[in-house]
Design a protein that fits this description.
CATH class: Mainly Beta
Oligomer: single chain
CATH architecture: Beta Barrel
Strand order of the largest sheet: 1-5-4-3-2-6-7-8
Order of helices and strands: EHEEEEHEEEHEH
Helix content: 25-40%
CATH topology: Hypothetical Protein Pfu-838710-001
């Protein structure tokens, strides 16, 4: 399974985060409207992601439930007929939570920088550093991003957006 190193933190200002991303030379890769439907599975996490109401991805991943940078193993499977796939999945798996977000995507080396506005939760920055050149390189790039974005340890979240919404009891 491919791996990435992830970190998610609450932020106060999307504009400030955008300025930081462009200031370090990150390339803007688009605005995305995403709806993630999480399903109950025995191990790991499974979600169906709808992107701009057009395309979809089935994403399975496993990672530790802790605050800070976390190693994640994942598989992404493209879904062409996302509505039909969602109906099928809902017929035999229990949906647990739906996450709705607007995402500004920036790319920097082997990292994806997500500036997210999540319905019911607020604003976040999320770093996903793909482990292509070894874990040490990924950890170094993660630390660089954390430093330039001035991420305070108290703002770092340990779970997924789905976990945060479930804690708030916002399920749909």
């Amino acid at each position: 399974m491919p791996q990435n190193l992830e970190l998610k933190a609450r932020i106060r200002s999307l504009k400030k985060a955008e300025a930081t991303a462009t200031g370090i030379g990150a390339r803007f890769a688009g605005d995305l409207r995403q709806v993630d439907t999480y399903f109950r599975v025995r191990r790991g996490r499974l979600k169906l992601r709808e992107v701009d109401s057009k395309k979809g991805e089935l994403i399975y991943y496993r990672r530790a439930h802790k605050r800070g940078a976390r190693l994640s193993r994942y598989v992404i499977y493209p879904v062409g007929r996302v509505r039909e796939a969602k109906r099928l999945l809902c017929s035999f798996l229990q949906p647990t939570v739906v996450v709705r977000k607007n995402r500004r995507l920036y790319l920097c080396k082997n990292a994806r920088i997500h500036l997210d506005s999540v319905r019911g939760l607020g604003h976040f920055v999320e770093f996903e550093v793909i482990v292509r050149k070894g874990r040490a390189q990924a950890a170094g790039l993660m630390e660089y991003l954390r430093t330039v974005f001035k991420i305070d340890a108290r703002e770092i979240e340990g779970g997924s957006y789905g976990d945060l919404l479930r804690r708030k009891k916002v399920l749909a």
